[in-house]
Specification:
The protein is an all-alpha fold. The protein is built from three helices and no strands. It has helices spanning about 5-30, 40-60, 70-90. The radius of gyration is 14 Å and the shape is elongated. The mean pLDDT is about 95.
C-alpha cells in the first residue's frame, strides 16, 4: 500500500467518524432544542468523503430520514464518493 493510499484510507475513516458524530450531536441537540448543525455542513462533509457516515447516522440514529434532500441526496453522494475514491486510487497507484 502506498503512502497516498494510506492517507486516503485514514481520511475516509476520520471524515466518516466525524459525520456519524455530527449526526448524533445534531439529533441530541434537536431533542434538547439547542444549537444545531447546519444541513449544508452535513452535505459538505458528505461531499468530501463522509456520505457513508451520514447515511449510517441517518438510519442508526433515525435522524433526517424524512428530509427529501437527505434521503435522495446522500445516496447520490455515496456514489460520488465511490467514483472520487476509485479515481484517486487509480491516480495514486
Amino acid at each position: 500500500m502506498s503512502t497516498g493510499q494510506i492517507i486516503l484510507f485514514v481520511w475516509l475513516i476520520c471524515i466518516n467518524a466525524l459525520a456519524v458524530n455530527l449526526m448524533y450531536k445534531d439529533k441530541e441537540n434537536a431533542i434538547k432544542r439547542e444549537w444545531r448543525v447546519r444541513e449544508s455542513t452535513l452535505f459538505w462533509i458528505a461531499f468530501f468523503g463522509g456520505a457513508i457516515g451520514i447515511y449510517f447516522g441517518m438510519h442508526a440514529i433515525r435522524h433526517k430520514t424524512k428530509k427529501f434532500f437527505f434521503y435522495m441526496g446522500i445516496p447520490m453522494l455515496i456514489w460520488w464518493n465511490v467514483l472520487a475514491v476509485s479515481s484517486l486510487l487509480i491516480w495514486v497507484v
